[in-house]
Amino acid sequence: DWETRGIIEPSHAKALRLASSHPEWFDLSDRTMVLFGAASEAGPLTWLSKWRANIVAVDLPNPKVWEKILDTVRKGNAKLIAPCVENLDAGVSSTDLKHKLGANLLTQLPEVVTWLNQFKSSLDLAAIAYLDGEKHVRVSMAMDTIMSLVSEHKPDSSLMFMCTPTDIYAVPKEVVEAAHQKAEQRSNLQKVLTAGIKTLTLKHFFQSSEQALIRSDNDKHYGVADCLVLEQGPNYALAKRIQQWRAILAHQNGQRVSINIAPSTTTHSVTKNPILKAAFNGASLFDVEAFAPETTNAIMAALWVHDLRNDECAANPHTSIDHPLELMMEGANHGGLWRVAYLARTALPFAALYGFASDKLPLHWLKK
């Protein structure tokens, strides 16, 4: 259904179907998976804990954070490895343990690098930590530095990132054509309403996405999907750009890199912003879907496993891709944002108004 409605790209659906047909891939007892920001609400901890992974959890030294991590792993069948600045007795209780574990990526970066380099196994390094404001740029730089230094010492390590759909991406020709087709297929009522609102708001709402096809030097045509949401701020945009840059560079240098666009997800860090929360509530008006954290956790964890196990996927540096930016096109779950008939950020404010009002007023006829 997601694939049919353009919520996910066909390559995302194909990867999930392939993973589903290979249950043996999900025995992760041979993998050592490092989670920077292990307790992240949209992260894969819950599922890795069920798939026998060796989980190296790195998160802030905060008892509430570690209580969540310890409880999650305890419910599964995984092995937990965590940083601690003191030697602990084997019989230490969980109550005491949650007060002693953790590392701060911003202040203990050299110690984390030294610790990770001591592992004998290859590492799968996942950059999923999030902090508000300028700290997000700083923690992204910290993760980038750790990944770079560990990769120099352990070149067989792999990298994992989760992109945001609210960014700017090169997209396949088929996506541009689908967006144009969606614009043409709007009902007359919707065309009249959106044109009127666009005029009244001095073109602030419902601007055309105006995706044009651009010929690359590989003779393929791509579009540019501008889904940037300005309310998320420049720090967020810069932090995510750093991750894309590292992914492309590492992949070019021969590392396996899993970097997939994860859907907009109703995590606390997003929904605490009332405008974004309302926009997600009303996004269905424009055939955009926001995912529950539990759903994002499951599908993105499965996609990571797919990228580690399937040697024919784009994550494998030995698999030929026609353009470096196709690394982000493969496996994309953008929630429908790539195929919106309008410039996304000029439709989402109206989606927010719709989201605020939809619980109280009979507005569902606007979808028709």
For the largest beta-sheet, the strand count, sense and barrel status come to: 6 strands, parallel
> What's the CATH topology label?
Rossmann fold
The spatial strand order of the largest sheet comes to 3-2-1-4-5-9
Which structural class best describes the helix and strand composition?
alpha/beta
- Rg over CA atoms, rounded to whole Å, is 21 Å
Q: State which percent range the strand residues make up.
A: 5-15%
Helix content: 40-55%
Taken from the alpha-carbon principal axes, the silhouette is: globular
Could you name the ranges where pLDDT drops below 50 across 5 or more consecutive residues?
A: none
Could you please describe the fold and organization of this structure?
The protein is of the alpha/beta class and 368 residues long. It has a single domain (10-367), classed as Rossmann fold (3-Layer(aba) Sandwich). It contains 14 helices and 9 strands. The strands form 2 sheets. A 6-stranded parallel beta sheet has the order 3-2-1-4-5-9, sandwiched between helices. A 3-stranded antiparallel beta sheet has the order 6-8-7. A hairpin with a 5-residue loop joins strand 7 and strand 8 (221-226). The longest helix is centred in the middle third of the chain and has 20 residues, at 134-153.
